[in-house]
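Q: what does this look like with zinc ion bound?
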Amino acid sequence: MLTIHADSWFDGSELRHRPVTVVIDGPVITAMHDGRVAVPSSATLHVGFLCPGLVESHAHLFLDGHEFDTAKRQAYMEAGYDAFLATGRRNLERLRASGVTLVRDCGDKWGINHALRAETAGSALPVVRSAGVAVRRKGRYGSFFAEEVVDAVTAAACVRTRGDSDDVKIVLTGIIDFAAAAVKGGPQFNLDELNAMTVAAKELGKPTVAHCSGREGIDLAVQAGIGSIEHGFFLDSVLLDRMAAGGTAWTPTWIPVAWVRDHPEACGVGPDGVAGLGRILDQHRANLGEAHRRGVTILAGSDAGSLGVRHGDGLHDDLAAYADAGLPLAAVLASATSAPRRAWGVDGGIIGVGRPADLAAFAASPVAGLSRLRQAVATVRGETVWQPASPYSLAAA
Ligand SMILES: [Zn+2]
């Protein structure tokens, strides 16, 4: 048996500014008491703040975000399976140190995400939710994480082979032209092709995830019933209303774009690009606020592994941006705890009796600033407690 005393906590929907005692027996929470209650013959953990384990909804585990040299990043893509796997293991440790207990990997063509999911199952590392290899149009964007298809028949056939993926990832649009503040090229798939894929995914019982920005692509994604829109730059209020009505979730991945704005020299972006990035991010910030007001499900995801985006830190940078956009603290926390688990049909994300013990603990409440959550003092899964040997060892590495 394990007992946790927390000075304050977040239950998955509301912040509670008073002490609580959480009792865990086996994999579940078996009792909760107001205040600090001693529980005989139980290990006890005292923490400042307790919440459901954090969720990173969009990461690429085999990629390191803190390699800024673009030539070295390019060379790394040839490093091979074993090197990618080693990187993925390190990144899972970084995520855990940041309080993450569940991470959705949104695609790699080598199957590192599946391998990490298998080897970490039942361990104290974060649970890996793996999209496996994504699906893209032949010759279009997505070479490092997607398989090529040419039409509705091959696209649906490809999706039917994804029985071992937790999510079916579709690359629907290309990358963004910063200077033009627009998506490059039209959508990779038309509505018939997209529908063929969402129907095939439904038959497999798998949620769909689309890399998608720009009104044209997002409109198609909503029509086809895609489960979550990743990135979603250039949204507008009409699309947000339709997403809210249709239950389409949104993973905003703020930080990779903000990082380029703040480090234009690292990617050869000139003054026009920086100006465009400013406009893109202003619109994205406004859309975050509108999405919250309109009841769109927001899933916190940072695209960790992208240039400049470290695993763990990236998630916390994205959360800071959501707060900056005007989301209340409870909504920010829900986007990284209860909302993704609810969207994916995963138990947890709520602290309550009978619920799985899948928790993250911190030294202090984020009411004093979201940065309080950047380093976990423990993650808890069932009665298994992980605590960092030195809270600063990973930051210094
Ligand atoms: Zn991504």
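DSSP finds 13 helices and 19 strands in the chain. The first strand starts at residue 2 and ends at 10.
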